[in-house]
Write a structure and sequence with these properties.
- The structure holds 2 protein chains of 2 kinds.
- By secondary structure, chain A is α/β, with parallel strands linked by helices.
- Chain A has 3 domains: 316 residues, ABC transporter type 1, transmembrane domain (ABC transporter transmembrane region fold, Up-down Bundle), CATH 1.20.1560.10; 217 residues, Rossmann fold (3-Layer(aba) Sandwich), CATH 3.40.50; 25 residues, no CATH class.
- In chain A, helix 2 packs across helix 12 and helix 3 runs antiparallel to helix 12.
- In chain A, a hairpin with a 5-residue loop joins strand 1 and strand 2.
- Chain A starts with a helix and ends with a helix.
- In chain A, the strands form 3 sheets. A 6-stranded mixed beta sheet of chain A has the order 6-9-10-3-11-12. A 4-stranded antiparallel beta sheet of chain A has the order 2-1-4-5, with helices on one face.
- Chain A is built from 22 helices and 12 strands.
- Chain A is elongated and about 120 Å long.
- Chain B is α/β, with parallel strands linked by helices.
- Chain B folds into 4 domains: 179 residues, ABC transporter transmembrane region fold, CATH 1.20.1560; 104 residues; 141 residues, P-loop containing nucleotide triphosphate hydrolases (Rossmann fold, 3-Layer(aba) Sandwich), CATH 3.40.50; 77 residues, P-loop containing nucleotide triphosphate hydrolases (Rossmann fold), CATH 3.40.50.
- Chain B contains 23 helices and 10 strands.
- In chain B, strand 9 and strand 10 form a beta hairpin.
- The radius of gyration of chain B is 37 Å and the shape is elongated.
- Classes of the chains: A alpha/beta, B alpha/beta.
Chain lengths: 600, 582
Amino acid sequence: MDKESKVMSSKEQRLVLFRLLNYAKPYIRPMFFAFFLLALATVGEVVGPILVKIFIDDHVTPRNFEMTPIIILAVTYLFIQIANTFIMYFQSVKFQTIALKIIQQMRIDVFSKVQALGMKYFDKTPNGGIVSRVTNDTEAIKDMFVSVLAVFIQSAFMFVGIFIAMFTLNVKLAAFCLLFLPILYFIIRLYRKISSKFYQDMRERLSGLNAKLNESLQGMGIIQVFRQEERMRREFGEINEGHYQAGMRNIKVDGLLLRPAVDLVYILAVIIVLGFFGITSMQTAVELGVLFAFVNYLNRFFEPVNNVMQQLSFFQQAIVSASRVFILLDETEIAPSQENHKDAKIIDGKIEFKNLSFSYDGKQDVLKNISFTAYPGETVALVGHTGSGKSSIINLLMRFYEYNRGDILMDGKSIKQYTMDELRKKMGLVLQDPFLFYGTIKDNIRLHNDEITDETIIEAAKFVQAHPFIEKLPDGYEQQVTERGSTFSSGQRQLIAFARTMAMNPKILILDEATANIDTETEELIQTALAKMRKGRTTIAIAHRLSTIQDANLILVLHKGEIVERGTHQELLAKKGLYYKMYLLQNGLRETIEDVVIHQ
Amino acid sequence: MKVFRDLAWFFKQERKSYLLGILLLLLVAALQLVPPKVIGIVADEIGNQTLTWSKLGIWTAVIIGSGFFMYIFRYYWRICIFGSSVKLSRLLRTKLYDHFTKMSSSFYQRKRIGDLMAHATNDIQAIQQTAGSGVLTLVDSLATGGSVILAMAFTISWKLTIIALLPMPIIAILTNWYGTKLHHRFRLAQEAFSSLNDKTQESISGIKVIKTFGQEKEDIEEFRKQSDDVVQKNIAVAKIDALYDPTISAVVGLSFFLSIGFGAYFVVNGSMTIGQLISFNTYLGLLIWPMLAFGWLFNIVERGRASYGRVSTLLNEKVDIEDTSTGVDQVPSGEIDYKIQIFTYPNENTAVLQNINFALAQGKTLGIVGKTGAGKTTLLKLLIREFEGYKGEIRIGGIPIHEYKLDAFRRAFGYVPQDHFLFSTSIKENIAFAKADASLSEIETAAEIANIHEDILNFTEGYQTIVGERGVSLSGGQKQRISIARAVLLNPEILILDDSLSAVDAKTEEMILSALRNNREGKTTIITSHRLSAIQHADIILVLDEGKIVQKGMHEELMNEEGWYKDMYLHQQLESLVEHGG
């Protein structure tokens, strides 16, 4: 993993960070409000010790116990404490809310981008990776906005507040304390430089370790049968040892430079403050309250430093995740675009393929010079062996992929000229794998189309004969579909998918028949449903069982991307060519097969 | 805290590190008390204007000394305690891995790899945290908290200590209450996130349906709604989460207020100095961390306990195929004799094999055919002892196979499984998987027999080409042929090809088979296949159906019988005609 992060220079990291911060732009006002609250809270924190200083120097040391000013001091102190509590709370909630909204926007952007990508992108990218971009990577970025940014800014405010307070108390001493900034800066830089390398190394080793483990588990059968357990144990042991060493290195770096180091600097700071007051006291009297305040400030000053350092690895992780997300957002493999003639409507549903050639990879043509016409209301069937190009024809017709050689016309116009909405509304595709979504049966038939009423849904279900089995379910149409519909038989899933298409009442029907065997019970239902659905609709059907398309107006036999035979069922049988053999394979008697095979 | 008892064996094993680590932690806790004390003393000297250069020098040295030692000690306890915890995770990982390599197929049938991975990653992580941060937090919070309170009470004023600590229980009570609420809301937020994850997964798997029905906008809208839900649930978490810091700072502020107020009173009546008051307040600041740490500790320990429980259960799984101590320590060779009455997979009811009786003389070739699920692969898995527990016996060279020592037994076999699995290393290492010291010429010969040599030379890196996600993606046929080369390289007594030619074309299949025939003179070969052409030349062909042998004989004999074999043979001939376009 993390291939990108390794080559990411600090300049690239900065670019990613700026782009990330850009997402905060719409929230600039509420953000400034949150900052304002933060500033108030910081003032409150900083003023507390000053009040105590006044109390010690003006009242306790000179034993001056006039009640009114003391009460004022006490009330002010308590008031600030209480007000601060509320301000801090609201500030924190506000800030987190903004961060969550920013991440939501980013998620929606990524998700929308994914929806706009062409099928080609999905072919070359594993699904898991895309899901990870949308959810996990954005979650890592959320950590950065919620904790890292908040801690950084809070610490920065605290820094500034404390220094202002120190300067008001004693300019000289405060100036001395400023000397610690470069030391701290140096430690942080050094830590970041060393630890980011070591941390990265450990993460890589961990992912190597997990990869090895995963692979071993998957290939355990092979490992055992080839008696390589010992060797694999040794190899795993080595990787494990490497990971251990990396872990130890990290602990050492953290130990040398993280908290212990900051605490050491704190001690130095204490010495400077004590020394300063001590030396001064040898010449003149010193206000002990100021000493108290300084010591107190030092305590508060070093806490944010520790916090910031602890956030650095989150920061690193967020940058890596963000760069991955941006790579996806910048992806150029988008879905084919339309010329969008708004008034172009599909009325008759005549489909014409004209000299269409197509290749997925630009090297090998999967379709070669395909031409045919499907007249309104007619059925054209595509048959052929796996890889003959049937599915590619449908992929192009549905505009899943862009083509450049030849054209597909609908009612005489190129399909590129219609709006996507029009195409989708008029063409109904029934996929080989009837994908069911999480939700009820009703949701699955309607999808998100609000124009489809409950009556239409039931009508559609009745039409494809899915109604009887749906009705028998405990919750009928409200039955929840679980685990991608695995509780239904494949035939039932198929029928639900039919109903989904019928509810749209498309002008053109595209059928991609399932190869998987469907239980004989539903098989018949499906065939009747298909016959009904095709009536009055231009249909392009991929058929695996030739018996289902015997009445097609035109059957195209494809082989390696070319139409090798065309005609009606009877014509093709009479030819005794490829179609005839395919037919025999499915329906032929042994004797006839023997005949054909032996006389070849 | 039960998990600390569960891990006692490890603490004992690493007692030197832990004892040293804890000792150092205690020393740090004690040293921590020095600077505030010194600040107080110096402040009083300053206040009384009695400070001299030498006194200042001594006190500075004391603080520097304590700081320096704290730095060293802090560094070393980290090495001791965190180092041990990393050691524990290394140890547990090794144990798990060893255990995994000993478990048989029935174990892998029951478990999902994802779950096993989770145990080896997340659970071990949680245990490591318990043995590291858990121990640290426990010791440190007790040590720091205890020593600070003692220092406050005994070196400054026990009265003021009680007064200042009065508000502290509020922190414990409130954070505990927040904790329960937070836990609940956090779970809801996690659920919302995981359902958003599911939704994304679903949309991407169903992208074709979404595009087909033009539902992109609606789907994005639904995603927006779900992500809204995630935001709302997380804001609910934030609303509780954000309570912690203000609450603590309010209570600590109150505590400070009380200590300053009453402290001033004590100063005035002479029972305390201003310097002591300053020390006292600095101590108070040191108490915040132990308070927080305790709540945190419960969290870590709770997770560690659950994880350790899961990992132990896994490690306690019995190894089910083990060597008998008196096993025959020789590589099997000779006639293979099957006499199986019945075999059923563990935890299943239907018999997979019934009445399998046949003998295969040494050096002969056996072909097994039949429909998917007829029991072909199971028949082989029993032979290589992936499963046991059948009624009957399988003998090789007259000795029942379970009497051989497993390691010696497996030396006899070269196995090419149905689901060709390659490791993500170079092609060379994959072929030489079972014989890491094979020479390049041996490897090339095996590759030539498997008809993959030419393909390999065509890759830019040749035999060094890396396979898998990080390297070239091979076709199914190429993977199958590399798997064959891997088995052939061993020149095994018995070579098993389990439907391992399904993804190569007929011509290649023929070339591989004839190369094997030449190469394996006098050695036994077993082939299962869907395609009958692969076993056509076998000395015996078994036709299996529903776990039983329905036909047996040589190709010519079977072609003269009416039955499944002949039907299928003709059918496949026609199929190959269709494939080639008539």
